[in-house]
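Whiteboard transcription, Tuesday session. T.W. wrote the C-alpha cells on the left side:
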C-alpha cells in the first residue's frame, strides 16, 4: 500500500528532527456503522461515526461498558469490517485495499495493545517482542537485537531472557507494548491497556504510553474506563448511543453514566431493537 508505506517512512525518517511532518490528517472515519445480530436483537454500537484524527494526536475514547469502544478500535485496525461507512488511513479507504495490503496495514501501520497482553507464556520476553519481525522475514538475530532495544526502552532491559509467564502483569503489558511498536507503526491503538492493572501499575503503563507516543511520533487512540488518565490526552471522546462526541459536549446525565461505569464497570449498552 504505497501511501501508507510512504507515510510510515516519512515518520521514521523524521526521527525527532525539526522537519518532522507531524501534522495533517492521518485517519478518518466516515459514517462508520457496525450492527451485530444476536438472536432477534440488533445491537448498533456504532451508528454513523465521523471522526478525523490528526497526525500526532493522542485521543482517549471513553464510554460505558458495551458502548462499542472495542468495536471501534477493531474497525480502525482492520480487525473487523464495518456494516456501512468507511475508514480512511492516509487518505486511502481500507475497503479499497486488497487482502495483502490489509495485512500490511495491520502489521506495519498499526500497533495494537489489548487489555490482556496475549503473550506466548513459554517464550521469553525478547522472543515475544521479536515475533512480528520474524513474521516479516527478519533473521532471528536481527529480530532479537531489535527486541532487546525495545525491551530496554520499555524499562525491561534486564529481563529479555525471562519467560513471559514469569513476569508481573505490568511487566507483561510492557512487553506487549514493545511487541506492538517493534514494527514502527504510525498508529497505536490501545484497548483498555491499563484495565487489568492496579492503580500504580496503570499509572506507570499510561506514562510509558505517553512517553512512547511522543518520542516515536505516534498517533494514539486509547480506549479506557479511567477518566483521570483519559483527561491527560489531547482529546477525550465519549461513545454513547452509537455516536462519538467530545467530552465537553456530553450531557450531565451521560457524563454521570460514564463516570459510574468507570467505577463499577456496569453495563449500559447502545442496543436498539
Ligand atoms: N461479535 C459480536 N456479536 C454480537 N454482539 C457483539 C459482538 N461484539 C460486540 N458485540 C456487542 O456490541 C456492543 C459493543 O461491544 P464492545 O465490546 O465494543 O463494547 P466496549 O465499549 O468495548 O465495552 P467494554 O468497556 O466492556 O470493553 C456490546 O453490546 C457487545 O455485546
Ligand atoms: Mg472493550
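and on the right, the sequence the group agreed on:
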Amino acid at each position: 500500500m504505497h501511501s501508507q508505506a510512504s507515510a510510515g517512512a516519512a515518520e521514521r525518517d523524521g526521527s525527532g528532527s525539526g522537519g518532522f511532518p507531524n501534522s495533517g490528517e492521518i485517519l478518518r472515519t466516515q459514517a462508520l456503522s457496525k450492527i451485530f445480530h444476536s438472536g432477534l436483537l440488533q445491537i448498533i454500537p456504532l451508528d454513523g461515526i465521523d471522526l478525523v484524527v490528526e497526525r500526532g494526536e493522542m485521543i482517549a475514547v471513553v464510554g460505558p461498558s458495551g458502548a462499542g469502544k472495542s468495536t471501534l478500535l477493531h474497525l480502525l485496525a482492520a480487525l473487523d469490517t464495518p456494516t456501512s461507512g468507511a475508514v480512511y488511513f492516509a487518505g486511502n479507504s481500507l475497503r479499497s485495499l486488497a487482502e495483502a495490503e490489509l495485512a500490511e496495514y495491520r502489521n506495519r501501520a498499526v500497533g495494537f495493545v489489548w487489555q490482556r497482553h496475549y503473550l506466548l507464556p513459554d517464550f521469553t520476553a525478547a522472543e515475544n517482542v521479536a515475533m512480528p519481525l520474524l513474521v516479516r522475514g527478519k533473521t532471528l538475530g536481527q529480530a532479537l537485537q531489535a527486541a532487546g532495544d525495545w525491551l530496554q526502552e520499555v524499562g525491561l532491559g534486564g529481563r529479555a531472557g525471562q519467560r513471559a509467564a514469569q513476569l508481573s502483569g505490568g511487566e507483561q503489558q510492557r512487553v506487549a507494548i514493545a511487541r506492538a511498536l517493534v514494527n514502527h507503526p504510525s498508529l497505536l491503538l490501545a484497548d483498555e491497556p491499563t484495565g487489568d492493572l492496579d492503580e500504580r501499575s496503570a499509572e506507570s503503563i499510561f506514562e510509558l504510553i505517553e512517553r512512547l507516543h511522543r518520542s516515536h511520533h505516534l498517533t494514539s487512540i486509547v480506549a479506557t474506563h479511567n477518566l483521570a488518565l483519559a483527561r491527560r490526552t489531547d482529546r477525550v471522546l465519549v461513545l454513547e448511543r452509537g455516536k462519538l462526541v467530545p467530552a465537553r459536549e456530553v450531557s450531565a446525565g451521560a457524563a454521570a453514566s460514564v463516570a459510574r461505569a468507570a467505577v463499577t464497570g456496569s453495563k449500559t449498552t447502545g442496543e436498539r431493537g
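Someone added at the bottom: The chain has nine helices and ten strands.
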